[in-house]
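Put briefly, the fold is written as integer tokens. One such record reads:
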Amino acid sequence: MKAILILLAAISVAAAAQAQAPKPAQTPAAKPRRAPLPDDVEKRTVSIWSDATRMAAHLYLPKNRKPEDKLPAVVLCAGTGGTKESTGTRLGPILAQHGYIALAFDYRGWGESDSRLMSVEPQSKRGESQEMTIKVRTLRGQMDYAEQTEDIRAAVSYIVGEPGVDPERVALWGTSYGGGLVVWATGNDPRVKCLAAQVPGMGGGPGPAAQKAAYDLATKQARGETEPAPVETGKLTGLLARYTTMRRNPVKSLGYNALEAAAKITAPSLFVVAEKEEFGGNPAVETAHKDLVKRGVPSEIHVLKGATHYSVYAEAFDEATRVEIEWFDKHLKPLRGEAPSQK
């Protein structure tokens, strides 16, 4: 990924960074069925600022809403390699048709969102305007727990400020890698009032050996003895090797534990899991669910019979979507006396 000359304050940063972005990995999750936007749904393109970086997003709204309406909202969070153009393009309009305002977005450095920038030469002295011309590298496709959970919280911050949204009825929906992220976000953000996580990856953090390796890598990154952020290194392996443009930085797993975060959740939580899950995440889901039930938090596990991980984007999509919308109807709409949708 070549360096570019950039004026930090210029609007052209986004365009220049995006021009170098690799195309998303072609995976089952990134190749959804496309359908025309329904006549009763409005779609808007919006921008979300997350830690001073612009994220691209789509907002889906029911056209039949009234100016005085305050509707429940669902923030859609993609999995590995996913973008607002994948599952969000399918699920957003469906949610809008059921009376929700849905927000689908691209994490920083994914899809059409701007990237975090890494200086490749020392910064020169800045003038009073704080502007400079400097050579940088765009960091794209990074799997970064800290950054992406912050992106989710920025998306929540955006949606609670949207006219027509009831800020007391905001839900998170996440799939796969994003399913673990929304579990963490729900446990750490009291604004989230409902959760649906499908085929979530929510491991309990690195074990002792992996933790030591991550700390050793952190030392090398800090001392400049290896890439400060993975670009040439950090390629995914095993079942995730298909995501050729993604990069993993084990240092970013330090301190992140979705299972520990689940122990802090007080919002009604639905987990949709594949019976033949090949990534091995179901035991962690069961642990989280049992703890929620023990603490009196509404929680359910819905098993997609015969399904594998990627079935949730294909043959199991309709079933998963149905139970998720039923969950939102049950736990979000009654807060304002609305009857569950019959659609």
